[in-house]
Design brief:
By secondary structure, the protein is of the alpha+beta class. 20% of the residues lie in helices and 28% in strands. The protein is built from nine helices and 18 strands. The strands form six sheets. The chain has a five-stranded antiparallel beta sheet with strand order 1-3-4-2-7, with helices on one face. It has a four-stranded antiparallel beta sheet with strand order 13-14-12-15. A hairpin with a 2-residue loop joins strand 5 and strand 6. The longest helix has 10 residues. It is elongated. The relative contact order is 0.08. It comes from Phaseolus vulgaris. Keywords: RNA-binding. GO terms for molecular function: RNA binding.
Amino acid sequence: MVGGPFGYGRSRRPQQSFNNVTTFFFSNFPDNYGEYDMVKVFQRWARVKEVFISRRMNRWGRRYGFVRLFNVANVRRLEREMDQAWVGNMKLYVNIPRYRRSDLVHTEVPLRGKGVQSERSNMEERNGHKFKLREGNKKEEGRYYKGKERKEWREVNKNQSYADVVKKDSLNVWKGPIFETKQQTLPWLNNSAVGFFSGELSYNQVCEEFILGGMNMVKVRYLGDNMALITPNQGIRVEDIIRTNKQWFESVFEAVEPWTDAHVAGHKIIWVRCYGLPISLWNKDCFSKVVGEVASLVEVGKATENWENLEYARLQVRIPKTC
């Protein structure tokens, strides 16, 4: 976040009050522009207090951020002016954040004459919806009435940070692209099975077991996590192979199931380096405890097993994909 208690730069003017600061949401700017670059863009209109650019993307896959400006006299006019600006070869999108729109109070100046007022002077606009205050309708603090229907408005916490606002709008919301596509039918998949090998084995060790067991009539492919796709040669049913070699399959796999679309890896296998562990504790039991409860040890690197590299221990672990 760019800015400070006295705004951007080395200004020694006293700190502005929060009520004199207006926040704008912006997006659709070049990827190579950072917070300092956007400060230079917005300071053409007003003095910039700070600029924040989120690390997340919006629902359309674009970068976005917030800018806070001092002493904005006409918020709507400045919003329209900045929304028409261009940054490089991209048109900038600027508007008032959703969480601050209800802070704006719209007032209308009555027409000159003998007490004649414009009909719009009795209108209240909040979040893009207008409510006409007719006779008998009361406006109380935080509440508006429209006939029998009651609309209730809650004061927004003005001390809410940018991070809180971004997290609130971003949690549990898919921000990636959404599209439709065709699903192809592969006959050989319908004649395949998925084997779940134990955590003590790696995929390479499973392949070695197939070679040593003489299972040259099947093809084994890694599906991720602890799953291997078993596909027999053409003309052979996978059920017949498993039934004939049941004892051998039970020695290699914990379970074998027919393949379906639901067989998607929920974990991933990665290599990590473990620094600072005394060499006297370099054993499989200690490594299993070091990786923690979330991860599980799969394999110890050859250089670690053979004491070739003593700077760190190289371990292969299995962790959830959400980590």
